[in-house]
Structures are given as structure tokens and as C-alpha cells.
Design a protein that fits this description.
The protein is of the alpha+beta class. The chain folds into two domains: 4-102, Jelly Rolls (Sandwich), CATH 2.60.120.10; 130-197, Winged helix-like DNA-binding domain superfamily/Winged helix DNA-binding domain (Arc Repressor Mutant, subunit A). It is 43% helix and 27% strand. The strands form three sheets. It has a four-stranded antiparallel beta sheet. A four-stranded antiparallel beta sheet has the order 2-7-4-5. α3 (92-101) packs across α4 and α6 packs across α7. The longest helix is centred in the middle third of the chain and has 27 residues, at 103-129. It starts with a helix and ends with a strand.
């Protein structure tokens, strides 16, 4: 999103995290802008039973955790490294200086936040009322658009695990597995080497 050169010129630091590391916790006050260089990060909550609900999964060149940074409110979710990853970390004052000096960066951030808000609105409607197969297709189709997944010979490969699909749609893993099999029978998706293609 923000170029490496621009981040480094504004004193962003590179920081490495190991799979499972907590980058920030729900309830903490935000002090930094985070952008992924390599690896994946998820934002998630846990209910009283310890069940995880994933708010979003973020990949290289994406940022996460900005709304509370702008609002000066506590983080509503945890950010956890899904894999070993490297991030740009920029202090809040330097981040605000960067966007105040760069109108194009400000517009890119607004567009990114609008896309995420749109996703949340679409998925909230799907989760509240639709069948599992429909929820999964919406998640898959939105992932293709949002992550700009390139089409391969067999279609668009979805790299989400069954567990991640369950956590993103509010379904149980067993339900996701059954729904994926049903979607494959209906020729809505293909399963090749356990990967989902649309």
C-alpha cells in the first residue's frame, strides 16, 4: 500500500515476528501503523469458550489495525502472526505526518478502509441469514477480488485453510468441509491437492 521507500524515508522500522506471535492485543491503545512485508497476519477475537472468530487475514503490502489508530480507541481484536512474518512498524506521529504530506497515500488508505468496510457489510449479511454453501461462495468470491488473486489454469486458487474459512464465516470446520464437497459436486469449485479453486 505505502511504498517501502516512503515508509523508510519516514523512519519506519522492520520487525520480524514468528508464527503465533501476538503483534497487539484486544484492548490495547494503538501507537503504530503496521504494514506487511512478508508473511500473513490475522485479526481475531476469542469468545468465552475460547472459540476464535477471524475478522480478517492480511498479506504482503497490506496494512492492518488502522481504524483504532485514527480514532484513538482501543484495539477491538488481536493481531497474530499466521506465519513467520516481517512488518514495517511506524510510530503514530510519524505515520500521521506521512499521510498529511502525501495526498495519494491518504486516498489509498481511504480506499483500503472502504473496501474492508464493504467486506464486513457483505459478510455480516451473509453470516446472519444464508446457508453455509452461500456463505463460503461469498467469502471465496470476495477474497478473489479483495486480494486480487491471479487466475491460474485451474481457476483462482484460494489459500485459506478450512479452519480459516470456518473462522471467517462463523461456521464449524465440519460444516465447511461438507459445504465444500457439496459445492464441488455442483461444479461451483474444484478441489485439487486439497486446495480450493474457483
Amino acid at each position: 500500500m505505502i511504498t517501502e521507500e516512503l515508509l523508510e524515508s519516514h523512519q519506519a522500522l522492520r520487525k520480524k515476528y514468528t508464527k503465533g506471535d501476538i503483534i497487539f492485543r484486544e484492548g490495547e491503545l494503538p501507537n503504530h501503523y503496521f504494514q506487511i512485508i512478508s508473511g500473513e497476519v490475522k485479526m481475531c477475537n476469542f469468545n468465552d469458550d475460547g472459540r476464535e472468530f477471524i475478522q480478517g487475514i492480511f498479506s504482503p503490502k497490506q496494512s492492518f489495525g488502522e481504524p483504532p489508530l485514527f480514532l484513538n480507541r482501543l484495539y477491538p481484536a488481536n493481531a497474530i502472526a499466521v506465519s513467520d512474518c516481517e512488518l514495517f512498524v511506524l510510530s503514530k506521529p510519524l505515520f500521521l505526518k506521512l499521510i498529511n504530506e502525501n495526498a495519494l497515500v491518504s486516498m489509498a488508505i481511504i480506499e483500503n478502509l472502504a473496501q474492508r468496510l464493504h467486506y464486513k457489510s457483505v459478510m455480516a449479511a451473509e453470516i446472519s441469514s444464508q446457508e453455509p454453501e452461500h456463505r463460503l461462495l461469498k467469502l471465496i468470491d470476495y477474497s478473489i477480488r479483495f486480494f486480487k488473486i491471479e487466475k491460474e489454469k485451474e481457476g483462482h486458487r484460494i489459500d485459506l485453510t478450512r479452519q480459516q474459512m470456518a473462522d471467517l464465516t462463523g461456521l464449524r470446520v465440519e460444516t465447511v468441509i461438507r459445504a465444500i464437497k457439496a459445492l464441488e459436486k455442483k461444479n461451483e469449485i474444484k478441489i485439487i491437492n486439497r486446495k480450493v479453486f474457483r
